[in-house]
Predict the structure.
Amino acid sequence: MPLKKGSSQKTISRNIGELVGAYKEKGRIGTSKPKSKGAAVKQAAAIAYAKAGKSRKMGTGGAVRTVKKKDGNRPVKIY
């Protein structure tokens, strides 16, 4: 079954569940074969968040700050 459209947490969770269910049945997610269930869950989450158009960065909840260095070099992104 195709993944649902939408960016709500409920839709994302359902899409993750559907992808993990497909992994349990066929041993693959799309064309890749994750070695463990943990790897499959991480990959499924990445796919579901990408489908929803959201980032899943760890740390500050996805917020990115740009900090200028004192020595005048290019700014650094902090996640």
Notes: Residues 9-78 form one domain. Helices lie at 9-26, 37-52. The CA atoms of residues 67 and 76 lie 5 Å apart.
